[in-house]
Structures are given as C-alpha cells and as structure tokens.
Design goal:
Elements lengths: L10 E4 L2 H4 L4 H12 L6 E6 H6 L2 H13 L2 E7 L6 H6 L4 E4 L1 H4 L6 H16 L3 E4 L5 H9 L4 E2 L10 H10 L8
Parallel strand pairs: 1-2, 2-3, 3-4, 4-5, 5-6
C-alpha cells in the first residue's frame, strides 16, 4: 500500500543500451528497490526498438534477469523504427507500446489504422499488453477500445502536471481506471 492507503501503480523507467550494458545494472536496480521498499512487480523497464536493434547477448541476459526478479519489460515506440518480430519472440517482454504516430493516424489514415490493428492483434496473440501512446481524441480511444487495446496514455486523459496535482486525481480515481 502507498502512503495514502492506495495500491501503488506501475512506474515505468526508460533505459538506454548503455544502461542495459552497464556491468552493475542488476545490482543497482536491486539496491534502488531495496532502498525504496518497492516491489519489483510495480517497476516496468522500457526500451525503445532502437535499443533492441543494437542490443547484444549481454542485454538479453539483463532482460532475463530483470524478468526473473519480477520486473515488467516493455518495448516503447513499437512499430516506429527497427521492428523485429524476432525480438518479441526472443525477449521476455510484457508490454508493447504503440507509437503515437500510428495512434494519430486513427480517423485520418487507413494504413495507419491497419498497423494499429495489426500491432494489437499480434500483441494479444503473444499474450502481451498494449499501450497506445498519444491518445488525444474520443475517436482514437473508441477505435483502440473496440480493438481491445489494453492501456492508454495521452492528452485525452490529462496534460502534464505537477506531482501534487496528479496525486489528488489518483486519490479520487477508482482502481479500475486504465490511464497512464
């Protein structure tokens, strides 16, 4: 439980290839989790497709160790750069984040919509969650919801704000609301 009696939410942290390849990255993450008393199940490590494209065996081992610790793994900006379906097969990924450039195509570009549908379908078939980045309109949200996208983030829900403001909102929201 959080300090306000609420169940904590996930915290997503973006990692670069250099961080993944740091010789003590696992120890550093363990130390932070221990220091903050945070359960690993609430930590999500995000890497962009470009990081995956240059990742090596060391990075793959780090992913496996993180997964073994109970940390969630996410591919950010999926479909934007170096999509390699073999990476989805090789790595213990939990979530695919659909790049906002495709979400912005909803209602404007049939090809972009088709890509969004394909990503959601593929992720679902692989047992992965999907997060749509950059949701700004009701039309986009309805399109994504109708296609079983799991989670959403974007200005449609909230604009960036100070921590004290989001804290008030989170205290009022129910645990079933899915926004990031």
């Amino acid at each position: 439980m959080g300090r306000e009696g609420q169940t904590p939410g996930k915290i997503a942290v973006n990692f670069s290839v250099y961080q993944l390849e740091h010789p003590h990255i696992i120890k550093q993450i363990e130390d932070v989790l221990k220091e903050t008393l945070m359960s690993p199940k609430y930590l999500e490590v995000e890497v962009t497709e470009s990081v995956l494209a240059v990742s090596n065996q060391k990075s793959k081992e780090v992913f496996k160790q993180l997964k073994k610790m109970g940390i969630l793994l996410s591919i950010d900006d999926f479909g934007k750069e170096y999509s390699s379906l073999s990476r989805l097969k090789e790595l213990p990924v939990d979530t695919v984040k659909i790049d906002m450039s495709f979400v912005q195509d909803i209602g404007k570009n049939v090809k972009g919509e088709s890509i969004v549908k394909a990503i959601i379908s593929l992720a679902s078939d692989l047992g992965l969650e999907t997060i749509a980045e950059g949701v700004e309109t009701k039309e986009q949200l309805e399109f994504l919801t109708n296609r079983m996208c799991t989670l959403f983030q974007g200005y449609y829900f909230y604009k960036p704000m100070p921590a004290h403001e989001i804290e008030k909102i989170l205290l009022k929201e129910s645990n079933t609301t899915h926004f990031l």
